[in-house]
Amino acid sequence: MLFWTYWLLAALLLALIARELWRASEWRMQLAAALVLLPLLLRVLLFK
Amino acid sequence: MKLRAAIFAVGVLSLAIYTGLGFRASQVDEPLYPSPSLSKIVRLSEYDSRLRGTRADTDVYEFGEPDGGATILVLGGTHCDEPASYIAAYLLLENIEMERGRMLIVPRTNRSAMSHKTIGEAHPPTFDIPLPNGVRPFRMGSRYTNPLDQWPDPEVFVHSPSGQELSGADSRNLNRSYPGAANGNFTGQIAFAITELVKQEHVDLVIDLHEASPEYPVINAIVAHERAMDCASMAVLDLQLEGLEFALEPSPANFRGLSHRELGDHTLTHATLMESANVSQGRLRGKTNADLVVSGLDSMYVRAAKINMTRVPYDEKGIPLKVRVGRHIAGFHKLISAFSQLNPDRAAAFTGIPTYDELQQHDLGIYLDPHDHP
């Protein structure tokens, strides 16, 4: 249960940040979103 | 704007693939090359089926046959940031030839701990041991079970069955988890499987290989349960006669969870543990890299030794891996010899394992060369 709660949180954050990356108009915001996206993506794919 | 977002997304995906492949590689066992006298390999899950298919399900290498001689169990890699522990076990399983008795070797006792590193320690992912023609890379792991396998840590780890309280992280420390429990946490299940192995295989002598930082009080030592004290005393005397300084440490009766205490108390085995001095674990160390693991030379420890802050002699020569492995191998020779003298009807005999002096003369790579194992 704890595992799936953690995974769902990571997946939700991943979706929100990906949306932010797509919508942001400034490159700095997009870069920040991309940097945050990386560890979330790895965790959702169960890497690390 | 959208093009830039797409470029960033491709960059993130590329980095995720690169990192993910590196992570996947860290989960694959490094190859070992057992000697021709290997009888069979069984999995630890044979002794506790709940470990099957998990990262704790490790190989148990068996050499020799049940012939009336002693059954000896060597545990390497209980703590996977103690390289002399598992390199000594690798050397044993790649070279031993049993003449009498059985040798069980578990080179990656906490296999889960070999699949990650401890955050904040800056340990290298791998280190190289020179071979006659090239190098052989070996992995560096962690003291603790991978949190992917056991998470989160409790505030306080309460050892079962004693009720002893330790820090939460020690709930993932295999050598605080013996004898383990069938319904315990993941690390406790590994301990339980090892305890079952000792019981079911009627192991006469357990040799658990470890390292510790040079400022740790129990160092360059053999720790022995009461039942193993005669055997360990003889071994230490023999080692000292050969010029190797070893201390004899009785297993503390009120410090629970350690292999020498719990395997001694919960089984009929003679439980022992050996410690060598490893600066790459030390709190006083400077730059931490693969060279430090192999050379064991750290200028901060040279300074520390000059003001008596180390428990072992330490100078500009350092304490290289071949010395630390050599000490474990020398202790292995002497413990088995002493056990055989004290129990002639259950004596064990083997060949193929170098002496301490041979190891220092020829170096580790001679005995760990995979080209000798076609």
Detail the topology: elements first, then pairings.
The complex is a heterodimer of chains A (48) and B (374).
Chain A: H1 2-23, H2 27-44
Helix pairs in contact in A: 1-2
Chain B: H1 2-26, E1 38-43, E2 59-63, E3 71-75, H2 83-95, E4 97-100, E5 102-106, E6 126-131, E7 134-139, E8 156-158, E9 165-167, H3 186-200, E10 205-212, E11 221-224, H4 229-241, E12 247-250, H5 259-266, E13 270-277, H6 290-295, H7 299-306, H8 321-342, E14 349-351, H9 356-362
Parallel strand pairs in B: 3-5, 3-10, 10-13, 11-12
Antiparallel strand pairs in B: 1-2, 2-5, 4-14, 6-7, 8-9, 11-13
Helix pairs in contact in B: 2-8, 4-8, 8-9
Describe the structure.
The complex is a heterodimer of chains A (48) and B (374). Chain A has 48 residues and is mainly α. Chain A has one domain. Chain B is an alpha/beta fold. Chain B contains 9 helices and 14 strands. In chain B, strand 8 and strand 9 form a beta hairpin. In chain B, helix 2 packs across helix 8 and helix 8 packs antiparallel against helix 9. The mean pLDDT of chain B is 96. Chains A and B meet through helix 1 and helix 2 of A and helix 1 of B.
**Distance between termini of chain A?**
19 Å
User: What's the helix-strand series of chain B?
Assistant: HEEEHEEEEEEHEEHEHEHHHEH
Total beta-strand segments of chain A: 0
In N-to-C order, the SSE pattern of chain A is: HH
Largest sheet of chain B: 8 strands, mixed
Separation of termini of chain B?
Answer: 58 Å
Shape of chain A: elongated
Number of helices of chain A: 2
CATH class of chain B: Alpha Beta
Determine the most extensive contact between two protein chains. A-B, 18 and 17 residues
> Any low-confidence stretches of chain A, pLDDT <50, length ≥5?
none
Strand order across the biggest sheet of chain B?
1-2-5-3-10-13-11-12
Number of domains of chain B: 1
Helices of chain B, by number, come to 9
DSSP helix fraction of chain B: 25-40%
How large is the radius of gyration of chain B? 21 Å
CATH topology of chain B: Aminopeptidase
**Average pLDDT value of chain B?**
96
- Overall helicity of chain A: over 70%
Number of strands of chain B: 14
